[in-house]
Specification:
It is built from 9 helices and 20 strands. By secondary structure, it is an alpha+beta fold. It has one domain: 4-Layer Sandwich (Anthranilate synthase). A hairpin with a 2-residue loop joins strand 1 and strand 2. About 25% of the residues lie in helices and about 35% in strands.
């Protein structure tokens, strides 16, 4: 099994589910696709990737879809600079034959990570200022600026070790925490995401779909701080504006799936993650029972909380401001199983390259007219530290 594709997801309350023995595994790029079971590569038109899921219903079993952020450019009809320079990964689709629910393993012993690369403040400031000019011109109302970091581990970390570090403490594992080992890529995709793109439940005659966008962040290291920190976060005009703006964007995205009105169920709720306190809203919509995955993704992907508003315009702006593709980060992982209809938004996420022992992560945050460059730079590093602390 150690050389096989496998995935582990968080079930909550100290339990995990491990998927193994894949019967189908395909990596889709912009201009090619690779059968990850045989290694065969053939030409492929990435514009057709969503068509693979035209008949993919939501009532299925043991299927995992890793959607990379760059797929969003195709969905929104944006000609990204990445497409001219690279053949980026758009998605990885895996069908498993086996799954097993287990108690999360005890924490293993991590190796040390050493910082290999990060953007200097001056580079971040230049992008911040360019984006802020777009806000001042009225080109957008909020943009989510992200930057990459790279860390090299002293020793090679395998999939089981990453699983133990991510899942051993149920208080620190995100609700949508998961990881996949793709041996053909020599990579481990790892996410401690607390945020969902959607969560679904089949009803007798319909599908209930929820989304829970996160916007607003404050440092919170101790349980006894939560009450006071939540009061402080709730009072923040800037953070409230971010949340309400993206909530309205997501309400519109949910509505456009089937032109069925969605509604905001909760406007503002607290969410604790390692070292941070966030706020989020809850939006729901009632949809057709036979809805396909393609239709949902056309309405929702990529998540509005990791782009900004208006979504399509902001994605074009970010394509210029950011210096490299986001990849797995800020994409989504869709899980379709007998008791699960869910998709994460892959914040607090990274890609571990096993040959180089390099962990590539991103972090970022929403920028509005109320934003201060220094504060946003510090918040970006706090989010980076929240994820990195799991492995150190």
């Amino acid at each position: 099994m150690k050389d096989q594709i496998q995935t582990v997801i968080n079930l909550g309350k100290g339990k995990i589910r491990r998927y193994s023995n894949p019967s189908f595994a395909t990596l889709y790029r912009l201009r090619s696709k690779i059968d990850l079971l045989t290694g065969k590569e053939e030409s492929f038109d990435g514009q057709r990737v969503l068509d693979q899921w035209d008949d993919q219903g939501l009532e299925d079993s043991k299927k995992i879809f890793h959607l990379f952020y760059e797929l969003g450019y195709l969905i929104e009809g944006i000609e990204s600079k990445t497409f001219a320079k690279h053949n980026p990964i758009l998605a990885i689709e895996i069908h498993y034959s086996d799954s097993e629910d287990r108690i999360a393993p005890e924490r293993g012993e991590s190796t040390k990570f050493h910082e290999y690369y990060r953007e200097l403040f001056g580079v971040y400031q230049a992008s911040f200022n360019s984006g802020y000019d777009a806000l001042m011109r009225g080109d957008c109302y909020q943009f989510n600026l992200t930057y990459p970091f790279r860390y090299e581990s002293d020793d090679l970390m395998d999939f089981d070790l990453f699983t133990s570090l991510l899942m051993s403490d149920p208080k620190r594992a995100g609700a949508y925490a998961h990881l996949s080992f793709i041996p053909q890529m020599k990579k481990i995709l790892v996410s401690n995401s607390p945020e969902c793109l959607f969560q679904g439940r089949m009803m007798p005659d319909s599908l209930k779909l929820w989304t829970m966008p996160i916007k607003g962040t404050i440092n919170c290291f101790k349980d006894e701080e939560i009450k006071d920190k939540w009061k402080e976060l709730k009072r923040s005009v800037k953070d409230q504006a971010e949340l309400y703006m993206i909530t309205d964007l997501l309400r519109n995205d949910m509505t456009r799936i089937e032109k069925t009105p969605s509604k905001v169920v909760k406007k503002k709720l607290p969410l604790r993650v390692p070292g941070l306190l966030h706020q989020y809203s809850l939006i729901e919509v009632t949809l057709s029972k036979n809805l396909t995955l393609k239709k949902i993704l056309q309405g929702l992907f990529p998540g509005g909380s990791v782009t900004g508003a208006p979504k399509k315009r902001v994605m074009s702006i970010l394509d210029v401001l950011e210096n490299e593709p986001r990849g797995f980060y800020c994409g989504s992982t869709v899980i379709l199983d007998d008791d699960i209809i869910a998709a994460s938004i892959n914040i607090r996420s990274g890609e571990y390259e096993m040959e180089s022992k390099m962990l590539k992560i991103h972090a970022g945050g929403g920028i509005t007219l109320e934003s201060d460059c220094n504060n946003e730079f510090l918040e970006m590093h706090a989010k980076r530290d929240s994820f990195l602390s799991l492995f150190t």
